[in-house]
Specification:
57% helix; elongated; single chain; alpha+beta; Alpha-Beta Plaits; Beta-Lactamase; 5-stranded antiparallel beta sheet
Length: 557
């Protein structure tokens, strides 16, 4: 049998406990729902942002092809699609993300990682692509449930999907729910413990206290307090309740303060990104925000470095007004930078009218050397378009030299705590600069090093220019001039030229002269052929000593 005192305590628990539970539950639910909605909205917007970025990049690639009349060229179309796939891989920030592009049949044409689609999944993708459904969707890929954003890209006939594993997408939300439930349970346990300890002091009628509590619950104002009209157990209970609601109010205000600071911090980060992306590569900014300490440490990395320079720019600038010089340089730099970015590189710095670009840092790709060479070809094509516009404006045309080298360099932030540059340094950087300077001496627009030739020689037409020792180096290196395409006559001439140069370095000067003379007939006026032909004839008459290697020493930079 329950004694009367127990019945009173039980009634008090029934009255007081809901008053404690309700604000805790409301605050927990409000904070949990706000956090859940915020995280879900941010994650959804982030996936949408990536999908839009990928579609915009693909549109840029298509526009580049269309502007140059290459949209029907399978080779260039394949290069553009490969660039889009490379860009898609750069968007991936976690192992659970997956970016796909499918054709109307459901066939996967772009993926950031291998995924084996089941027939039913491929059929579903074909249906989505055929219906042209875009925006948020849930789809099953490779036997896994995924959520993501869809975009159509009509020029390639692609249906783009930027997806995240469903479990990974909702993991932060589930963690918040679990933590909120745990906090609520702990709070309830603490509140119940306090009631058990203090409720024995409540012996007098509690009407006024209960009424005050009801008003607090009805108004939802944690700033309300119970009026302490008694000095006995009822007053003690009211004082305890006021302490509890005061702490809840502090906690609630702290939650609002944290939320406000988080929004302000996000806006500051967006503002910083917007400003500094004009000066620093976006990948470097991402790396800084994710791990600021790592940005102060250099690392060794295999990269391709590209140098360009406008020929005789000092003479040209003397013929122009200062504002015309700046206007011409800006009009020239714009398309050149676009070409570098389109091929996965970053512009390291501008030195007067010269450009230094890096391929392979901060993000490494499997074909950085080839991308750098293709960027060089793209720059020469962009220069032709720029000079056409210069001619229409009756302005002086520009000519340029390009040098590309591939090798190990030091990558990192170089400078002081007042001013830093994200850049690359090392002997291989210097060699790239020397190659650009040598284009003037050899009267060719484009030179690449032996290390670049070994990586791209099977994909790009290249011919040996000479073996040289550049200033600052003791060992010789072979330098080559590349060409994107050759006519039948040029291909024949290059073959004869290469055979003649090979015999030249083998000291068979007579045979070398004969082959080079044949090459000259196919390449009339070619400066490299004429140079080697003259040397071969001279050395045939006056053979060199046994120490002769054919290597040319370049004393100047």
């Amino acid at each position: 049998m329950i004694c009367p005192s127990m019945r009173i305590r039980f009634k008090l628990v029934l009255v007081v406990l809901p008053l404690i539970i309700t604000p805790l539950l409301l605050v927990s639910l409000a904070a949990s729902l706000a956090a859940r909605n915020g995280i879900t909205r941010v994650a959804t917007d982030f996936l949408q942002f990536k999908a839009e970025q990928l579609a915009n990049y693909a549109q840029t690639q298509w526009k580049l092809l269309a502007d140059n009349g290459l949209q029907d060229n399978p080779e260039f179309l394949a290069v553009s699609k490969a660039a889009v796939e490379s860009f898609a891989r750069s968007l991936v920030r976690s192992q659970s993300e997956l970016i796909l592009a499918v054709e109307g049949s459901g066939q996967v044409v772009l993926r950031t990682e291998e995924v084996a689609l089941e027939p039913a999944e491929q059929e579903e993708l074909a249906g989505l692509a055929g219906a042209g459904r875009t925006g948020w969707l849930q789809v099953r890929l490779g036997g896994e449930e995924r959520v993501g954003q869809a975009q159509r890209f009509e020029p390639f006939g692609w249906y783009l999907l930027v997806t995240e594993h469903r479990r990974a997408f909702y993991q932060p939300v589930n963690q918040i729910s679990y933590q909120s439930a745990l906090i609520l349970v702990c709070s309830l346990a603490a509140a119940l413990a306090l009631l058990i300890v203090f409720i024995r002091f409540i012996t007098n009628p509690m009407g006024q206290v209960v009424e005050a509590m009801k008003q607090i619950i009805t108004a939802g104002d944690l700033g309300r307090r119970v009026e302490l009209e008694y000095g006995d157990e009822v007053g003690e209970l009211g004082h305890t309740f006021n302490l509890m609601t005061g702490e809840l109010e502090k906690a609630y205000n702290q939650i609002k303060s944290y939320a406000f600071r988080a929004v302000v911090a996000q806006k500051k980060e967006q503002k910083i990104r917007s400003i500094f992306q004009k000066y620093v590569p976006a990948d470097v900014i991402d790396q800084f925000f994710s791990n600021p300490e790592s940005m102060l440490v250099g690392e060794k990395r295999l990269v391709a470095v590209l140098f360009t320079d406008i020929r005789n720019f000092t003479t040209i600038s003397e013929m122009l007004a200062p504002d015309e010089v700046v206007e011409s340089l800006n009009a020239y730099f714009g398309p050149m930078v676009d070409v570098v970015l389109a091929h996965g590189g970053i512009v390291d710095k501008f030195v007067g009218d010269a450009i230094m670009a890096v391929f392979g840092a901060p993000v490494k790709h499997d074909n950085d050397a080839l991308q750098a060479v293709n960027a060089g070809f793209g720059m020469l094509e962009a220069l032709a378009a720029f000079n056409a516009r210069q001619a229409q404006r009756q302005k002086q045309p520009f000519s340029m030299g390009i040098g590309v080298n591939f090798g190990e360099v030091i990558v990192g932030n170089i400078g002081s705590d007042k001013k830093m540059d994200y850049t690359v340094i090392g002997d291989n950087v210097n060699l790239g600069s020397r190659l650009e300077s040598l284009t003037k001496a050899y009267r060719v627009p484009f030179l690449v090093s032996e290390s670049v030739f070994r990586l791209v020689g099977s994909k790009v037409h290249c011919r040996l220019v000479e073996r040289v020792v550049v200033k600052g180096r003791k060992e010789s290196t072979a330098i080559y001039t590349p060409s994107r395409r050759l006519s039948a006559q040029e291909a024949k001439g290059w073959k004869l030229y290469s055979a003649g140069v090979e015999r030249y370095y083998q000291r068979a000067f007579g045979e070398a002269a004969r082959l080079l003379a044949e090459a000259q007939s196919e390449l009339p006026g070619d400066s490299l052929t004429l140079t080697f032909l003259a040397r071969a004839r001279l050395l045939e008459k006056e053979p060199p000593g046994p120490e002769w290697t054919g290597v040319t020493i370049i004393p100047e930079k």
